[in-house]
Each structure stands twice: as structure tokens, then as C-alpha cells.
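Hey team,

Filing this mostly as a record. A colleague (T.K.) asked me to run one chain through the structure pipeline before their review meeting, and I want the input and output archived in the tracker in case anyone asks later how it was produced. No errors, nothing strange. Just documentation.

Input sequence:
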Amino acid sequence: MRTTAPPRRLVIVVLDQFRADYVTRLRLPALAALSRRGAVFENAYVGHLPATTVVSHQVIPRGLFPRHLAWSDDLHRDLEGLLGPKGGIHDPGEFDLDLMSRLLAPVSRTHVARIFRGRGRFLAVGQKGYAVYAMAAGASGAAGPASGDLVVTLSDTLKEGNPYGPESVGWVHPVGRNVPTSLLGRPRTRFWLDTRPTYGTGDAVYRLGGHRTVPGPDPAHAGGDAWVVDAAMHLMEREPWAVAMLTLGAVDRVGHMYGAQRDLEHPNGSQVHMKETILQADAQVGRLVAFLEKKGWDGETVLVVTADHAGLGATQWHGTDRPGASWGNWAWGHLENTQTVAQLRPPLAPLVDAGLSALYTDTALRLYLKPGADPERVLAITRALPGVVLVARKEKTASGFRYTPVFSEPARLSPLERRWFEAMVPGLLDTWACERGPDLVALLDERTSWGQPGDHGGAQRAVQAIPMILAGPGIPPARVTTAARLVDLAPTLWDLFGRTPPAPMDGVSLRPAFSAR
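Output structure:
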């Protein structure tokens, strides 16, 4: 990318569930080319818990840890009763853009879109609504009160009786905020996608979702990550944009279904494989870079490519192996705004009698307890579960809340993972301790998932280690060994664009790590 002018634009690309080692393992051409032009953070990691999509997409544009954000976990305890009964448990993945904007308004002064107030429009595009909304919430009007932002994702799958007619059943279409008519079009035109093809994944625990996930054979209706980049380029060509945030979700979906890196070693029997999905994501980054160059924007654009979390392909998986069982493998309990899961897997069932109220499980376990629960009994049951290497209890201190380990056996880990665990876990635990969070947290070893065959959420190196590349004006080519976290991106961008953030952030600017070279 040319770097002859001061930066005027920003593009952030988030590759959902993208491991750092994919870049070198598969020799990804687009990311390798970008790495040669910009700053590559070789020790980048998520840097907070839980390492999940709905949490990390809050962190990236705001530079704040989950403990300071609207929700700190994949379950949200509504202590104030803002959404329903006080203390009710909600799924943030079901929050719409208006609700996320309301909840995140108090912590959005540092949103990177606000760097560009009055300079152009803010664009956010992705297949997964909750990821796009978490990025975009609080950016509204950042480019100026008259311009508004453009937020584009995909609708729910259309059912019988929808207003578009029977020929649209099974399809999805663009929705969001200020979606232009040129993007929406008529039913089943370019940016409508067919969600019905399964490509042999019908028996998967976490099913495919048709062309919402994969491109499909018809270039006129390319879905998946190609859809995201096509929609973003469509908006960029037509709108006076200044900042664009894209989240590409295909690798995440396939990683959950078939086990992240494990599918590279032993490809599953369907027509959808990790290798091709990763290569497709890389190709979309390449298309975006080429588009910026063609339009003459590359020399004035800072481009960030990173991931919201990585992924662990579990060799010890304790989920229910049944088609479509994904939500029940993640969540249990009465949830106010989505499907309640009433049946708990047998090894976890004793927790109910001990006082469990709600539970979230992936590569970490998060336990929400009822008032009067027996914490010692809960602890005894939890620490005996397969894969558990640490249990931490939430405690109130003079300065706030913290998670205090009450059980730890790092000797269960491999030597390499143990070094990572002992260096990183104390700091990671501190990032999400707040009153509304889980009462008890259990971290798992590097082999185990209680959620999907491939999953995220925990402190494992496989989940935490992510790519992070910055390229553009003011960013010389560099291989940077300084540790870099997602929370550091927002302060780095405020620094690169020569602006002073209007409020403190938890992250620190990474600019000194590469600007002195």
C-alpha cells in the first residue's frame, strides 16, 4: 500500500475465529502480502475474557475491557432491571442495534468512529447481526449529525407468509440502519442470499446456514465473506465514507462445526472444509486491498486486520452430539429474551441442586448462582469436571470486583500451555470482573471444550493467539514482538490519526512499538 499522504480513512477487518498460525501454516497470499507492507504483531492475543464474538466486537472499537462495557459475557445479568425483571439473564446476541446503542452509549466516547466526526460516513458490514451491531453501537452520528451511519447485516431467514412472497422463503436480505435501496434491491437479487443449501452439513451440531456462510456456486449471488466485501465495496463506491468496519464470519461457523484446526488435519466428510474457508477469507482481504488501490484510497487509508478470538479444536469434547444442538451446548437456564434451555447435560446436572441459575459453556465455564446457593458445593462439583484447571470466585473488594482463584492445578497442562497459563491468566481474569458477571469461572485445559467441537471463550493459547496487522500511512514495515491486545487497537488508532481520546481507555497505544523503527 502506498504511504505518501497522512491518513484520512480507516478500515478494520475482523476475521471471526481466525488463529494466528493460519497465516503461515497455509501461506495465505493476501495476508502475507499485507504483512510485508505493514506492522505485524507477532505476539498479538485477545487479551481479555471471555474471548468471544459478542464481547470482543465491543472491545475493538472502544479500547475498554469487558468489565467496563455494557455486557461482560455471552450472558448478561440485568441488575438494574433495564430490560425486564431485576437480575434476569439475557442473551446479548439477541439484542438489536437500538438496544445495543442504548446500553453502550455511556462507554462510546472513545469509539474510533468519533475520530472522523465531520469527515465522512461510518460503515459497518457483516453476516452476523450481533457482531456488526456491537461494533456499530455508539458510533451513530460520529461522522456528523446530518450524515448518519450505515449498518448492514442479514435478516432472519424468511418463512412462509413473509411480505416478499413464497419465492423468498429460505432467503435472507440486507437489514440494519440506513440500508440504501441500491443494496436491498428486489427479492432474490444480488444481495439476497439463499440459506437452504446444506452442502452435507445437515447432521452437524452447529449447522451451516447456507450462503449466509459460504459463497456458493453462483457468483451472481456469492454469499459468506464474499457477500460482506461486496456489500462494503458497494457502499464505499457510493457513500462519502471515512471509516469502515467489516466482520467476516465464515471461518467461525465452520470452526464451530468441525473443530477449528482439527479439520485442517482430518477434513470432515461434508463439502465445507476449514482450509477452503480460510483461503476464501484471505481472498476477500486481497479483494478489499485491491479495491482500495484501484480507487486511489490505499495511500490515505489505515487498514487493520485482526480477529475477535481464535479457536480450539477439542480432542475432549463434552457437548451433546446431535444435529442442531449448538445452543443447548452453550447455554443453560431461563433466559428472558431467547430460547430457554431446560435440560442440562448429566455431568453438570448436580449444579442445579447446589444453586445454579444459569450457565454458559465453551472453552471456559461461567456459572451464575441463585441467592442462597451453596458456593462450596458448587465449587466441589465444578473442580471435578473434566478439563477444569482453575476455578475462580467473584469477590467484592474496596476497589471493585475481582476473580480470586480458589482451585488451580496447572500441572494438568502441557509444559508449553502451562507457561502461557501462568503468565497470562491472572491478568485475563481481571479484565471481566464486575458485579453483573458470572459468580464462578472455570478455565479449561488446551484439549477440552464443553461447547462446540471447535470453540472459543477461554484463556487457552489456541483461543487467545490472533493475527494483528496494521498497514498504511505512518506505519512502516515491521515485525513487532511487543505484546498486543484487542483493547490496544482503539488507543493506537486515536494516536495514529493525531487525535486525543475524550475519555480514558484500558488499552495503550502500540504506535511506539513500530514508529521508532
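Quick notes for T.K.: The longest strand covers residues 388-397. The domain at 1-517 is CATH 3.40.720.10 (Alkaline Phosphatase, subunit A).
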